[in-house]
Amino acid sequence: MSSICGRLLELKLKLPEPPEPAANYVPGVKVGDLIFLSGQTPKDGRQIRYKGKLGVDLSVEEGYAAAQLCTLRLLSVLQSMTGDLARVKKIVKLTAFVNASEDFEAHPDVVNGASDLLEKLFGDKGQHARAAVGVSSLPSGAAVEVELIVQV
Asked: Residue 38: in which H helix or E strand, if any?
């Protein structure tokens, strides 16, 4: 068992099954030593768990949990592509889209759900560049969508 799997167990978290694409794209593309992971929304299987706008329908804490769930889904794709999360050399870039009301300003606090998890799991390798962007809507009304670029 890799140390990443051990850390997931300590955090009482589990990787879901790798998600199937919802449209005409692939979950990830490897170019050289980089893997570009397609955006993931906070789904349990095929159902959106966190749906709605931050600042209207959902709290910052719910947004944080949504970003964490998106990241678990990304990691399941990454594991399926690499065979072992221990092959990760660096989480390079995280981009997150937050479905937010016009006056919502806590995007960084929401996206910390993804960033904090990556740092807990990968330590220094999990520290990354990042963008936290507010948007007026996301597919299926999802609260958050997260994508990653990873070096292996």
From this structure: strand 34-40
DSSP 19: P
Entry field: residues in the chain: 152
Report the pLDDT value the prediction gives residue 141, as an integer from 0 to 100.
97
Contact present, 51 and 141 (Cβ < 8 Å): yes
pLDDT at 61 over 60: yes
Helix (H, G, I), strand (E, B) or coil at 87: helix
Cα–Cα distance between 83 and 123 in angstroms, integer? 20
Average model confidence (pLDDT) for the chain? Answer: 95
- pLDDT for 2 equals 64
Packing angle of the helix pair 107-122, 3-10 (nearest 10 deg): 130
And the tokens for 126?
């999990």
